[in-house]
Write a structure and sequence with these properties.
The chain is mainly alpha-helical. The chain has 2 domains: 39 residues, no CATH class; 108 residues, no CATH class. It is 59% helix and 4% strand. The chain has a two-stranded parallel ribbon with strand order 1-2. β1, α2 and β2 form a beta-alpha-beta unit. α3 runs antiparallel to α4 and α4 runs antiparallel to α5. It starts with 20 loop residues before the first helix and ends with a helix. The relative contact order is 0.17.
Length: 182
């Protein structure tokens, strides 16, 4: 288990593009861990500065929610299964959010890791049988491609399960950016 020697920070920086140059300029040698979405523009900066990159479970969950929306009404499917497991992970996080970091780590190992293991077994089977261009296929592919980053939060009690705080803070700008075009 690694641990932070400093409090984690949240940095908001607006840039008009998602150029790889932006994260390279922002990330210094003092950054140890970065939680972002699946956009690969961050990876060169993480590699250059030896930064551990974590994945965001909220992004994975969102893709399964999109897949669920197009399921036939009243029918449960693979998207429901994924969402149920993800919900269990979030319930664990809700219960331990005020616990000391070492306790959070222990609980994640005892309770979240078995769920993660079940998801991994299910994912390995499911990704082979669902066409990748479907909404469910895209969700499974995202989960598969981001797997090592998504499970990274298990390795340290200080790591969050998602970057929803940052996402919620920038949402007005993202929505505004689209609306201001018109």
């Amino acid at each position: 288990m690694a641990s932070f020697t400093h409090e984690p920070i949240t940095l908001f920086h607006y840039a008009p593009t998602r150029s790889q140059q932006i994260p390279n300029e922002l990330l210094a040698d003092s950054v140890n861990t970065l939680m972002v979405d699946g956009y690969n523009g961050y990876q060169p900066a993480c590699d250059e500065h030896q930064i551990q990159r974590l994945g965001c479970w909220a992004h994975a969950r969102h893709k399964f929610m999109d897949a669920k929306k197009i399921q036939p009404k009243g029918k449960a499917g693979k998207a429901d299964q994924a969402l149920a497991w993800i919900q269990k992970l979030y319930l664990i996080e809700k219960q331990i959010k005020n616990d000391p970091l070492d306790r959070r780590y222990q609980i994640r190992q005892q309770q979240a890791k078995p769920i993660i293991d079940d998801i991994k077994k299910w994912l390995q089977k499911s990704v082979l049988h669902v066409p990748p261009k479907t909404a469910l296929g895209k969700a499974l592919t995202y989960l598969h491609n981001q797997w090592d980053r998504l499970i990274g939060y298990l390795h340290d009690g200080a790591y969050p399960i998602d970057n929803n705080l940052a996402e919620n803070a920038i949402r007005p700008f993202a929505i505004g950016r689209k609306n201001w075009l018109f």
